[in-house]
Amino acid sequence: MLAAPANTQLREFFRTLLGYLTRLTSRRVLWSALLAGALGAVALVLAACAGTGQNVTNITNPNPVSWFPPVPVTEQGDQVTGIYPLIFAVAVAVFVLVEGLLVIIALRFRRRSSDPDLPAQMHGNNLLEVTWTLIPALIVAFLFWQTVDRLAKIQHLSDSPPAVVVEVTGFQWQWTFDYPNQGALSFTGSGTTGPEMVVPASEPIRIRLHSRDVIHSFYVPLFNYKLDVIPGRTNEFEITIDEPGTYGGQCAEFCGLSHADMFFTVRAVARAEFDQWVTEQQAAASQTPAPLPSGGQTLTLNAVSVTAFDPATLTAKAGQPIVFDFHNLDTTNPHNVAIENATPEGAWVGTPIANPGQTASYSTPPLQAGTYTYFCAVHPTTMRGTLTVQP
């Protein structure tokens, strides 16, 4: 006998609660929309403030904080800069129109507590439906045509390769730059500054991209262009840098633990300076390495993979040079040997870097007694070992 009254009271409770929540939602819906818009604006501002994070002091015209792309330094980048303001203006106009109408409708035609019934219902309007279908279609068609036209100009390749071709190889987590037409020069970077690509300004340069392991992305912000570096595939593009300068670049595709340190620089110089640089680099590459100092202790060290040295612990004597007889047994990646805090300035880094299958000899300065960490400067976070220097 008590069930019916209890059920009635329960239904009345939920009806009252639902009514309260409905009124609460109607009062707060506008504030929720405003809050979401404010959070979105903050996110956009923070994104616009992001820089490259590269620690190179001589970079020309670093990426400025702006809603728009930076002023490009290449002929191809001008194509991007030319169309971006148009797309941005169209996007802002559409956003303001659509969101503005939604806010007006929500405020002007919302149901109030004094409204007993629904308002008169209307079904369709042919003129409005044709208008709001045709206008967006025309806008999209125009932007599509502009995009395809400019993309064709950006990705155009010369019928014959330019005089300077740079073969770029990305790997976890650095870059190698090879110059096949300049005496097979090769440069592999180490540390957060990465390697330097030197090219002549004011003439076409072809860049060919290769990957040894995972997907990377070759990105120079001031070029207004980036291209993925994909295993098993060669992607290539041409650029003409307008004027001399040093421009920072980075990997723009998350590729593993040290992705954030995968930097490089592109230095554009006058043609005469580039030819002199090539001559100097060829002479340096052909020189016979200086003999290693006599005395000291020779330690054999192997690079097995991007995650391991063999052995992982070494012992040496203090007060005398240490000669590393280094063998790169990794068939895929270049490696070298470096020692943390080995000099007053910081780490000691052995050069040159040994490519897959190569052997190199490195002689360190005399070390004081203590425990040191040796590592590969190309893969500093994963290839590490312990060196104990005894009195």
* Low-confidence blocks of residues: none
* Strand line-up of the largest beta sheet: 3-2-1-5-8
- N- to C-terminal separation? 95 Å
DSSP summary: helix tally: 4
| DSSP E strands, number | 19
CATH class term of the largest domain:
Mainly Beta
Tell me which CATH architecture of the largest domain applies here.
Answer: Sandwich
Structural class: alpha+beta
Shape: elongated
What profile does the largest beta sheet have?
5 strands, mixed
The name of the CATH superfamily of the largest domain reads Cupredoxins -  blue copper proteins
User: What is the CATH topology classification name of the largest domain?
Assistant: Immunoglobulin-like
State which percent range the strand residues make up. Answer: 25-35%
Order of helices and strands: HHHEEEEEEEEEEHEEEEEEEEE
